[in-house]
Amino acid sequence: ELSTMHGNHEELEKSKCQLKEEVANLKHHLETNMVDHSQIEQYKREMEERTRQEIRQRLQEVNLFLQTQAASQDRLEQIRANHHASLRNQLKHRIRDLECELDRIKSTQKDSIFQKESTQAEVERYKGLYLEEVKIRRCLANKLQR
Predict the structure, then answer these.
(1) Domain ranges of the chain
(2) Using CA atoms, how far apart are residues 27 and 34, in angstroms rounded to an integer?
(3) Record's InterPro entries (predicted)?
(4) Distance between CA atoms of 22 and 32, rounded to whole angstroms?
């Protein structure tokens, strides 16, 4: 029994040594692979801060973009308004020019009609004088023949 127990004891010692080695390996593995909890918290805080800074930077970029876009929209509206005003002014000038041209044409037409009427009246007057002259000549010719 003593020798059996002695054999069991040796096996237990071997097992104990193996377990100690395994514990040492696990401790070493734990030390090398595990980071201190405070380091994890520190890393977490740094990441959160970096993320906040990135978000702030992105928000600033978005705000800048939106401001630029709003300014561009305002400039576009101003350009459109100026263009419409310019077109309105051009149309007003064109209408005024056309009205002046129409008045000039009407005036020229009236002058032409007046001139035609006065020429026609003069023609009628000369025609009357001519007929009267012809009548007087006939009378004189008749008197001369008698």
Answers:
(1) 1-115
(2) 10
(3) C144A/B/C, DUF3496
(4) 15
